[in-house]
Amino acid sequence: MSTASNQEARSRGKAPAGERVADWADGRLGIYSLAKANMRKIFPDHWSFMLGEVCLYSFIIIILTGVYLTLFFHPSMNEVEYHGSYVPLQGQLMSEAFSSTLHISFDVRGGLLVRQIHHWAALIFLAGMFVHMMRVFFTGAFRKPREINWLFGFLLFVLGMFTGFTGYSLPDDLLSGTGVRFMEGAILSVPIVGTYLSFFLFGGEFPGHDFVARFYSVHILLLPGIMLGLVVGHLILVFYHKHTQFAGPGKTEKNVVGMPLLPVYMAKAGGFFFLVFGVIAAIAAVAQINPIWAIGPYRADQVSTGAQPDWYMGFAEGLIRFMPGWEINLWGHTLVLGVFIPLVAFPLVLAAIAVYPFIESWITGDKSEHHILDRPRNAPTRTAFGVAWITIYMITLVGGGNDLWATHLHLSINAVTWFVRIFFFAGPVIAFLVTKRICLGLQRRDREKVLHGRETGIIKRLPHGEFIEVHEPLSQEQLHTLTAHHQYEPAEVGPTVDENGVERKVKGSEKLRAKLSDAYYGEDAQIPKPTVEEYKEITSGHGHH
Ligand code: HEM
Ligand code: HEM
């Protein structure tokens, strides 16, 4: 039918309706040239590239469900008497925030499901970001030209943590109130300005009457607004830089091998969005989360046992829980080091990962662009640092739940705390050494495979009685993949005399760089990959040995 009307339109000298609309829009927005340049953009295929999409889709789900929640949530700390349909709390005094969250859970159509989807999506969003960040880290995708995008991502991770924190504090229940109290304690530990900051934030003595309303605007507007801007910037940069790819035949630093954005990638991405939404909705439908009616409204004089923050805040909690309760009393003032040191350590643990790309590029002195990803084993020192960092993070996470580990595993809480204290320092060192060894072992195996082929497990007996195992040579593709990586030479301290033959002072930073470079690329830090000559010498003449 449309073909018939199109022909009719043409015969009257007019373009078909669709074309006219397209023309109209193109004349005003220039979308034709924009679309032409971008719609055929190529995206490489690898499962780990879906992690960024998980972040994106869970973020969209959070915004959609968050908007629904704002329709019914009352961000007020005014005290009200509860008369909703949850019978056990009938007649109880509570804040409007708490009572409206009960209302969402029990009286609003789909309210409980949407609340649970919002909360589960937040947990998955942060987990997605964590794993996505690690994929980018371990494959070296943060290298030039993507350092800025790494920082954008890092900011998203940190802002995501705080958006989650402000979000789960909104219902004003006993658990989240305990978390806010924890934050108040941390702020109070700041020397000189701590008390002022706390009074400013809470509008007076904790808990005051203001924090839910304040957290609300921060939670639904300020932080998500900044995050949305960063996500758009992040994706524009992914588009602009083009995606990285793993080494393989036909893949170079100058091309991208994969599928075009339209129609293939769009179709896949669209399907994947519904898959992520479906999985989160299914989890939210069957797994209860944050049952505030069982926890009860917040009262500053109460705290329940087993109180835990959401997982992404657990490491901050852990830093405080395993720290000895040191205090210094000076001129009538108390400096609570037991809280203040963790407060300073908190950004440091995070910043270590933020600045890493800049440290690595300083050590390598490499100014070239990198679009081919590293296999983690081929960058043993970086991989080892990454695993050491995850170890610190996980150990502090254990510290954050020391009471739960103790009760669930029937251990003494002091034993768990001491375990965390010791392994906060020892864990990353052990993880670093073990990871580096494993990477070097894997590099040796790759070298072995390139030079001697794959062990087939087929044993042959030669006429003179000797047993040999048949090795199957690798295909050209496999050989390429295993030998494509670049191996750096360790940087050395430059000439110690200047052009006039006068001895110059070697700067401390130069020495440090040479030392670090040796740790990264010295003899103990990488196994030389096979050279063409070695390969030819071994493979010429006999197919197996
Ligand atoms: C709201 C959170 C985030 C969203 C929606 C997001 C989304 C994405 C998407 C869709 C991609 C392309 C596909 C992929 O490589 O997975 C990507 C790539 C990238 N992301 Fe993220 N990301 C987020 C957080 C982060 C974080 C926390 C980091 C690191 C700290 C990060 C660093 C990067 C980098 C460096 C790339 C380029 C990787 C490459 O081309 O190989 N992102 N991001
Ligand atoms: C990265 C972004 C976000 C994260 C991580 C996040 C996380 C959370 C979490 C964990 C809760 C507690 C839910 C519960 O009751 O168990 C919450 C509550 C809430 N969020 Fe968000 N949220 C985000 C963005 C938004 C946005 C954009 C909106 C609105 C446009 C929103 C609106 C709300 C409202 C109204 C509540 C209180 C109602 C309730 O607790 O059920 N959130 N948020």
From TrEMBL:
Subcellular location: Cell membrane
EC number in record: 7.1.1.8
PROSITE patterns: CYTB_NTER (PS51002)
Broad class of where this protein is predominantly found: membrane
GO molecular function (one): metal ion binding
Keywords: Cell membrane, Electron transport, Heme, Iron, Membrane, Metal-binding, Respiratory chain, Translocase, Transmembrane, Transmembrane helix, Transport
Root EC class: translocase
Domain Cytochrome b/b6 N-terminal region profile: 21-247
UniProt entry tagged with the keyword Transmembrane helix: yes
Alphabetical GO biological process terms: respiratory electron transport chain
Necessary cofactors: heme
Pfam families membership: Cytochrom_B_N_2
GO cellular component: plasma membrane
Segments crossing the lipid bilayer: 49-73, 117-138, 150-170, 182-203, 215-240, 269-290, 335-359, 379-398, 418-435
Membrane topology, from the record: Multi-pass membrane protein
InterPro entries: Cyt_b/b6_N, Cytb/b6-like_sf, Di-haem_cyt_TM
UniProt name for this protein: Cytochrome bc1 complex cytochrome b subunit
Source organism per UniProt: Streptomyces shenzhenensis
